[in-house]
Amino acid sequence: MKPSNVAVTAGGSLLSALLSFLPLTCRIFPVAFSFLGAGGLALAMDMMQYWPHFIALTVVFLAAGFYFAYRPEKLECAPGTVCATPKSRRPQRVSLWVVAILTLALIAFPYLIPYLPIG
């Protein structure tokens, strides 16, 4: 099937519009992204005053995670039946410990910066 003249001209105009947009991409977008980066940094500095609150909220969520990971399971069916065998919580517990260790490392990092060897 032969494309119509309208399809060819529409495709050509779309291609030329995209090609004319390339210099704009190289010049304008890096400047816009740098402003967004500076704005993000300013927002992070404004949020710094709430840092202790975020740490407390993180500890509360970790405590809830450990509670749900290590609480005893309630068996609601007769012993010896298929539903009486509990599911393994090992992957949940391992991933929770990994997240807890990474979280504690990230919380401690600002306090450890002065003691890091630089250069």
What does this protein look like?
This protein has 3 helices and no strands. With 119 residues, the protein is mainly alpha-helical. The chain has one domain (5-115). The longest helix is centred in the N-terminal third of the chain and has 43 residues, at 5-47.
State Rg: 28 Å
CA-to-CA gap between the ends? 67 Å
- The assembly state of the depicted protein chains is single chain
- Our count of domains comes out at 1
Topology:
Layout: H1 5-47, H2 51-70, H3 90-112
Helix pairs in contact: 2-3
Summary, kept brief:
With 119 residues, the chain is an all-alpha fold. It is built from 3 helices and no strands.
Key structural traits:
3 helices; mainly alpha; extended; 0% strand; single chain; 119 residues
